[in-house]
Structure formats: C-alpha cells, structure tokens
Write a structure and sequence with these properties.
- This protein has a domain at about 1-60.
- Helices cover about 90% and strands about 0% of the residues.
- It contains 6 helices and no strands.
- It has helices spanning about 1-30, 35-60, 65-85, 95-140, 145-160, 160-215.
- The protein starts with a helix and ends with a helix.
Length: about 220
Amino acid sequence: MEQIFMNTIVDKVNACADKVKEQETAIAGLQKNAPAIKEAEANLHSATSIIHQLQENMKTLRFPVEEMNRLSEELNANNQLLSRPRKDKVFHIHTAGRLMSAVIVLSVVVLILGYGWYNTHATLDDYRMHDIIWRQLKLRVSAEPLESLHALETEYQANPSLMKDNVEKAELRLQQDAEARQKVAEAEMELVRRKHEAGDTMLAKPGKKIREKKK
C-alpha cells in the first residue's frame, strides 16, 4: 500500500516535470522573439527547482506500515477476546459447619479454663485456711505438742510423698476399722432384734393353747 501511494505521487511529479521541460523547450525557441520570455523562464526554473525539492521530500516520506500492522494485530486480538469471553468458575465455600465447630471448641476451652480456675481458687483458699489454722495452732499449743508439730513439719518437708502415703494408708485403715465396727454393731443389733422376736413368739404360743382349752 505504501509503495503504490509513493509511486502515484512520483508519477504525478514526473508528469509535471515533463510538462515543464516541454515548456522550457518552447520557451527556448521563443526567447528571440519575446524579451518577457526570460522572466517566465526564470519563473519556470524556480518552479522546476521547487518540483525537484518536492520529489526529494516525497522520497523521504514513509508511511507507518509497521505501526499500522501492530495496531491491526492488537485489534484482531481484542476481537478474539471479545468473541470468547472469559468464564470464571465460582467456588462456594460453606463455612457454617466450620463456624459451628469453632464455636463448640471455643466453648469447651472456656469451660475447661473456668473449671481449672475454680479448682485453683478453691485450692488456694484451702491452702490459706490451713496456713492460718497452723499458725494459730502454734500460738495456742504448749511447748511439748508444739515440738511434736515441728517434728511432723520437718518430716513432711524431708519427704512429702512418703508422709502423704503413710497418712492415706492410716486413714484407710481407720476407715476400714470403723466400717468393721459398724458392721459388728449392726450384726449385734440384728441378733438382739431376732432374740426379741423369738421371745415374743414363745410368749404368744402358750396363751393360744390356754384359749383353746377353755373352748
């Protein structure tokens, strides 16, 4: 397209140049006859130089073929994109179940922390109570029992786990002895009750025989 355009312009300029040459030839023949022809000849020479300058300028002109090709390619790419629109996939994420699980887990954690705090508070209160009782006991007890208490305290500090085991075993033994004594007492009470029932039965039977004889 650029070459055709340039060739057309060059042909027109060449045609004009040919006409100018023809006129120059005619003017050369008429120079002898008309003095004014010299002035016209000068004008024609200036016009010829202008035409030659135009020819040179036309040769330097360049049609932006590369830019037009690039623009055409970009337009074609845009048309293809518009003819095939992008299809985005929509993923639906259901968070209700996860949210419920998170709420349940947080609730359990809060309950555990609350229970632990409550136990810690209760243990701390027990410790304070025992500490105050121990200190008050030291103030009230006489020297000999106080020495015994100090000995127990020293024994506990030396081996707390051993003393704890001994105390638990002694408490268990006392509890078992108390339960055994309670069972013996209940058995004795049951024996006495049965003896009373047997005595009442023996007393009731002779009376019945006396009533039968009277009849």
